[in-house]
Design brief:
Elements: H1 28-40, H2 56-62, H3 65-71, E1 80-84, E2 101-107, E3 113-119, E4 125-130, H4 131-134, E5 141-146, E6 151-157, E7 159-165
Antiparallel strand pairs: 1-2, 2-3, 4-7, 5-6
Helix pairs in contact: 1-2, 1-3
Length: 170
């Protein structure tokens, strides 16, 4: 689905298949990662679990209004991978190759950007987002917000580094 990001937009959305939150087989962090990617890619949010057996943890993820707002943003530009430790920000056939540590980004109608720092590895790791890779200018100043903690992290210039992103987490 990520490779098709340029083809998505109002009137035609890419659908990476089934939203798996609450179906078992993933950790809480993996479910948050799954939902985060779905929201950034503007994928249809169709709950795929049995709502008669849903846990509070699952509902917390599915009801995250900040994540849903990114998914429903009126600009409708699908976010995509802009950097990885395997390919830097050099595009190969129009795409940045997947790696163990990735930065995904997409613009929002407000002029802001939604950014995911993704750790696909099995160990915690520091991940840095260069604002220029994400669509901002090199020396831009940006306020960073954690939509899972529902808190502002601070204001940063040119880059932001998330410390010790857990395994399989954002």
């Amino acid at each position: 689905n990520e490779k098709l990001w340029r083809r998505a937009g109002p009137g035609g959305w890419n659908d990476p298949d089934m939203l798996e939150i609450g179906n078992g087989g993933m950790t809480y962090e993996e479910y948050k990662t799954h939902f985060s990617l779905w929201c950034l890619m503007k994928a249809p949010l169709l709950i795929g679990c049995d709502l008669t057996k849903v846990t509070d943890e699952t509902l917390e993820i599915l009801k995250n209004t900040e994540a849903i707002a990114i998914n429903q943003d009126e600009l409708g530009v699908q976010g995509h991978r802009v950097w990885s430790n395997k390919g830097g920000n050099v595009e190969v056939d129009g795409d940045v190759p997947a790696g163990d540590y990735e930065v995904w980004a997409g613009p929002l109608m407000s002029g802001q950007f939604a950014v995911i720092l993704l750790n696909r590895s099995t160990e915690p790791v520091d991940i840095t987002a260069n604002f220029k890779d994400c669509g901002l200018r090199e020396n831009d100043v940006a306020m960073v917000r954690d939509i899972w903690a529902h808190e502002d992290i601070g204001t940063f210039t040119s880059t932001y580094t998330a410390k010790q992103v857990p395994a399989h987490a954002v």
